[in-house]
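Please discuss these two lines.
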Amino acid sequence: MDDDGDVGDDDADDGRRAAARARTDDSRLDFASSDFDPVLALKKSSNATPPFPRMRALDTVRQCRRLLPSTGEKVGREHGAGRQTRGLASFAAQARAKQRAERFTKEDAAFAKRERLCDALANSKHAREGPLRVLRDARERRERVTIVTRHSRGVRGVATAYVEAFDKFANMILTDVEETYTVRVMRVVERERTGTTDVVGGHSRTQTRCAPKLERRARRLQQIFVRGEQIVSVSIPPS
C-alpha cells in the first residue's frame, strides 16, 4: 500500500478507538447502567448529571437504609427486571402484627365499656346499706369526711379529706388530706433524787433519764391510701 493509504487506515483506527472510549465513558457515567462508576462521576471533568439533580442528599446510613428492601424481602427478576418479591417470613410477620392489632382493638373496646373500679365498689351491696353508706354518700356528694386513725398504742390522730375510692374492708383512697396527729418522742428529763438531802458543791443531787412525750403535729397531703384496720371511725361533719 502507498503512504496515503497507510495514513488513512491509522486515522480510521484512531476514530474507532475514540468512539469506543466515548461509549465506555458514557456507560460509566450513566446512573441507570450496570457499568456506572461513582468515582469517575464525582470528578469535576466528568460533567455527569444525576437523574434528579435537585434531590436532597442523604447524609447518614440510616437515611439510606429506608431505600433498601427490608430483611424479610428479597430482590428477584422472575416477574420482570427490578421487581421486588417478598419472602414468606415477611408475610407471616405482617399477619401476626395484624392479629395483634385486632386483639388490642377489641380489648380497648371492652375495657371502655367496663365500669370503673371505684364506681363498682360504691354501688355494691355492702355500700348501699350498712355503715359504708356514709362513705358512698360522701363520695357522691363530694363532701369532706373526718377519719379517726389509730396505731398499735392507741389513737393516732384525725384526718379530714375527700373520699375517692373505698372497698368493703374500709380501705380508702383520700385526697386533699389535712391531718393532725401525735408522735411519741423521747425527752431528756432531770429529776431530783427522792430521799436525799445531801448537797454537793451547793447543788442538790439530781438524776437524768429519758421519758416519752407525745408531740402534736399537723400536715397536708395531696393523696394517701389508708388501710381499713387503721381506721377507728368515719363521720361527716355538719356543714
Notes: The chain is about 35% helix and 35% strand. The mean pLDDT is 76.
